[in-house]
Amino acid sequence: MSDFDAIDSLLDAVGHEAELPPHQVRRELRERARLSKAQVARALGVSPSTLSGWEGGRDPAGEARTKYAYLLDGLNAKLATEIEAEPAEEQPVAAVTSTSSPVPGQDEDDVELLAVPEPCVLCGRPAEQRVAGFAQHLDPSDCQTTPVETPKPPPTAPSVQAQEPRTAHSPRPAGRKDTVPRGRAFQESSGPADLIHEAVHAALAEHRGDVEAASAVLLKRAIPDAMRLLDETRKGARYDVIAHPQIPDILRKQTSKGADQIWEARPKWTRTELPPGKHEVTALDINGAYLSALKTHLPLGQLEHSTGFAHDRRRAGVHLITPPAWDHDAVLPNPIGQRDEPGPLWVTEPTLRLLLRLSGPKHRLCKPPEIHESYTSGATENLLEKFRIALKDARDTAIADGDELTLEYVKAMYSKFVSTMGESNYNRELYRPDWMHIIRSQAFANLWMKALKAHDASLTVVRAMGTDELHVIGDWRRVFPEGRSVTEVKVKDAYSAGTDAEAGTGEEQ
Amino acid sequence: MPEKNIDFGKFGASGIKGSDAVARQLDRLAGHIATPVTVKRGLMARLHYLTTSDRAWQAAKDAGLAVSDRTLKAWMQGTRRPSKANLERIDAAYRAVRRRNVARHLTARLNREGRGTRVEIHPLDQSGVARQLQRVVAHRTMNVRRWDKIVGSWAAGDHQGLDEAWTADVLPDLGSQWGQYEYVKNIGFAA
After folding, report:
1. What separation in angstroms does the CA of B183 have from each of B125, B163, B172, B174, B176?
2. Domain containing residue A271
3. What is the complex's ipTM, to 2 decimals?
């Protein structure tokens, strides 16, 4: 028999799906009830990100759906009674004309007397009653800022109550809404970006508005300030910044002035021959190339040695590879840069990922590289993300305000941060030559991808050079937006080249 | 001390004494002359460093470089080259004098007026240990406030004293597991 019961219940379940309100309403309901995603998710037994999905348009299924529908129903009912309670409560108050005793017009069991006063959800001062689960003052005279839902003695007829709270004795009803952002409790108003502005203001104040002197001081302080900003942005973060791991020998400098064995794949390529005819070449400059390159897969801890061909996407580091042959040198630069000697070489994660990407099914521009050895560690792309965003925001604001001083300061911060994070004596707080190489390579890989983008949009790429220089022929404005933001490019130079097919292009610049 | 390792490396773990790692990092921070003493440039740089003042030369003599002024003059003029044994003595004397000279400044930098310096401890390498004998040893960081004894014994070349200052005074702050960090892969800090 029990078999049939089970089948019956299964049959019941089929075809009967709980109704859910549209997704915008789901979020609104939760926020109006001042519940955080984490709270709701815990109650439903799902992760907060799943809940975000449901509020963003996805639909839950099965038992979770039933539970969620139940919760939303409950919230809906609660909030509806709360709104209805308002006029219901006010009639008796109006009749008595302002008494100091709490006169609950709504259901008695919704109002609880609290033994220990809790902060009122509306004004924040201790309240002794809880209505519908929220501690609040019943008497509006106790409540300093008048909330919309709070019952209050109406000075006018009850029929105009709807607009009344806006016009009545609330000093700043709109301001209150702004100071309490919905659903985002305990957010710090001052972010790490404030550090940058504070430093600039302090330097300006110290030198009484002398921009030159302030700029000199700020540039001198750029490295320690960048480290402070990094610390600030890693507050409460999941991973520690590990600053002094043991560095494998390949990452150590051979001599005091020499280089280590890592090949950063810096592009230095000029097209061998132009298409026949005379062309207008535009030299484009990529804005904040190193700033954008801070978003890259950085190894977190100690680099561990491994051999073999497999590439683990969750790890990053440096790899000894044999690069694939490159047959497109006539139109596109070699992704490993201008390498003179053949054979295996140590490349960093961005270069390897670029090669793997180009060998993939989407591009098929070369064969996959052969990996022989690797020094890798578990990686994340988000280690410097907040740091990058803070600098980018400060940069954007400075550009919008025409604030050259902040712009210079931000630029010094990120460029010096990258160049001194290795074995430099100017920054001993951070000793990660691997990161330095990886970030630089990422900048080069980004430039390379821009060259590919231009090529795919049938522009003629003439030169790719350094971190941020791209020379193209053709209408580049339909490919790259022009401007000063990091996603845009600016024109460095425009020149004409190539009277006949053999003329080199490099000389005219 | 019961937490101390008696037979380190018995099961294949590798690492160096924590105090050696500290000395290595202090040496790195002291910024020695990079060119080796066997090259003329490196030799001359060391000799000049040791003869900047009478006090420096006296310190070099105390550190075991016992040569006559005549020999020194010949070395400086390049008419004679020091023997291999003397090259080693020059290098050792240079290191000792350099350490002694930077010790006071380095201590002040590391103490930071009592705020101390954050130290990263990278645990020993267990890749040579059989799987079932491997243990979870996490990366640790700690703040060390008093560096006087550590830098003092490093400057005096007193390995025993440095080991004592590190193992007995600093490491136990890590908690009851501190014995796991007696041998390490690396110790890092900035000054």
Report:
1. 9, 11, 14, 14, 15
2. 249-383+421-508
3. 0.82
